[in-house]
Amino acid sequence: MEHQKIGFFGYILRLINWLLILSLLISYIAQWVSPEVFWVIAFFGLAFPILFVLNVLFLIHWIFRRRKFLIYPLIALMIGLPMLGRFFQVGSNSELISGGNNIKVLSYNVHVLDYYQSKYGGPGTARNQIIEKMQMEDADIYCMQEFYTKEKAGIDNVKLFKESLNTPYSFNSLYFPGSSTVQNVIFSKYPIKNSGLVGALQDAAGGVFADIEIDGIIVRVYSVHLESIKISSERNVLDKYKDLKSPAGQEVAKKQSITFVKKFKSAFAARAKQISVLKSHIANSPYPVIIVGDLNDTPSSYAYNQLRADLDDAFVQRGGGFGKTYIGKYPSFRIDNIFYDSQFSCKNYNTIQIELSDHYPISAEFSLD
User: Fold this and answer.
1) 48-65 and 7-29 are packed helices; what angle lies between their axes, rounded to 10 degrees?
2) According to the model, what pLDDT value does residue 2 have?
3) What 3-state DSSP class applies to 46?
4) Using CB atoms within 10 A as the burial measure, which of 136, 232, 283, 315 is most buried?
5) Torsion over CA of 20, 21, 26 and 28, rounded to 10 degrees?
């Protein structure tokens, strides 16, 4: 089979492929290694989709070249197939819901209701459109992160959403220092018996929770929003700088790249701390849990793996396609999730294709029987 002389170029390709195989294998390990212990490995986890695709391309190359070397990328790719399922699902596995105790839970990072950027029509326009779309979804529980509670015009958005969505019960709280108006909110059509903040505010708490009684059954719902990378200002600098190939442009790119790495490192470590606090809180829950929200990390990350360890992922069970939820420049992956206890039965999952924030809302329906 491999009867042709390899040649210098062939050896170079093999070396490159070996490096990609090694990087792909490291990306698998990243889900188990806390960034607090070794933060560099988190970058390999972030790069998993790219590394997987590059190895697929090399596999195709070796197949066409009829080289035995194909066995090495093939083995590496086969090992990663379970992780690939977190990013992509073929078709949809939804079930029809009929009778019984069923609830629909929706999660949406509303990006401050477009109050600052006016990218989606401005605060009033985006807010009203979001309300209209959410009314159409008719969920039982809405969890909204980065929710702008009170506008300068005196509008109480929590009250407005409660009335508009027919959710008489709600809980909202700050979840990071320095803001009195951007909060994490849970709206519910069912009574909230208990609620609170997960973690300490001064440490950028990972989320909020509400114990909700549904036809005699109490469910603990978590709405989480883990630490973001906060690189929008650096991206804007690079986007506005026209000539990055010039000496001055290269210096700008170098400085911004260093800042990128520092911010990624800081965010990785912060999320690891938040996950630790969140998992401890979940472990002490007296009720079955549903966890939704914005992890600010991909399905190959330590944060995702830790949260999903004892729970099911609604997208993996009932989703279809790539299911991406973040519609900004990067990462254009699924960073919003719905996890749930195995005693629930997930009937369907949906990524709602509306662009009124930098995230798509997601929803899942559960049977409580």
Assistant:
1) 150
2) 47
3) helix
4) 315
5) 120
Q: Is the Cβ–Cβ distance between 201 and 174 less than 8 Å?
A: yes
Grade residue 366 by pLDDT with cuts at 50, 70 and 90: very high
Domain 102-230+261-367 homologous superfamily, CATH = Endonuclease/exonuclease/phosphatase (3.60.10.10)
Q: Tens digits of per-residue pLDDT, 17-52?
A: 999 999 999 999 999 999 999 999 999 999 999 999
Which tokens belong to 64?
Answer: 């066409």
CA distance linking residue 362 with residue 368, whole number of Å: 19
**Which own/partner contact pairs does 87-91 have at CB distance under 8 Å and 24+ positions apart?**
87/49, 87/298, 87/299, 87/300, 87/322, 87/323, 87/333, 87/334, 88/321, 88/322, 88/323, 89/315, 89/316, 89/319, 89/320, 89/321, 89/323, 90/320, 91/320
Cβ(366)–Cβ(344) below 8 Å? yes
Task: Give the contacts of 153 (CB within 8 A, at least 6 positions apart).
Answer: none
d(CA 334, CA 2): 41
Give the pLDDT band of residue 247 (cuts 50, 70, 90).
low
Q: What distance in Å separates the CA atoms of residue 1 and residue 24, rounded to the nearest whole number?
A: 27
pLDDT in tens, 281-334: 999 999 999 999 999 999 999 999 999 988 999 999 999 888 899 987 665 789
Both structure tokens of 24:
């792909």
In this structure, what token pair is assigned to residue 129? 């459109």
Q: For residue 309, count CB atoms less than 10 angstroms from its CB and return exposed for 0-12, middle for 13-18, buried for 19 or more.
A: exposed
Say if CB 88 and CB 346 are below 8 A apart: no
Burial of 19 (0-12, 13-18, 19+ CB in 10 A): exposed
Query: At which residue do the structure tokens 């170079």 appear?
Result: 12
Residues pairing with 217 in the sheet:
214
Is this prediction's pTM over 0.85?
A: yes
- Adjacent-strand bridge partners of 182: 148
- With CA atoms as reference, report the closest residue to 300 among 40, 44, 16: 44
Residue 30's pLDDT is what? 95
Q: Rounded distance, CA 51 to CA 351, Å? A: 25
